């Protein structure tokens, strides 16, 4: 009786454990990012582009402000 319960218990836990390990791996993280980027619409990509431009502008013009703000 106990062996049957352990078998059923392992059938439930092993896939969850494998899924968690996969999501923590670098390959799994990359696939998650790819799926998320594929689901973006045009406006989402536009907002990301503006954020990248704004961030690059801050770094390019005055990196000393970044050092002061971070410390």
UniProtKB/TrEMBL annotation:
Residues 18-53 form the Large ribosomal subunit protein eL14 domain. InterPro entries: Ribosomal_eL14 (IPR039660), Ribosomal_eL14_dom (IPR002784). Gene3D superfamilies: 6.10.250.2270. GO terms for cellular component: ribonucleoprotein complex; ribosome. Keywords: Ribonucleoprotein, Ribosomal protein. It holds the Pfam family Ribosomal_L14e. The keyword Ribonucleoprotein applies. The keyword Ribonucleoprotein applies. This is Large ribosomal subunit protein eL14 domain-containing protein. It comes from Flemingia macrophylla.
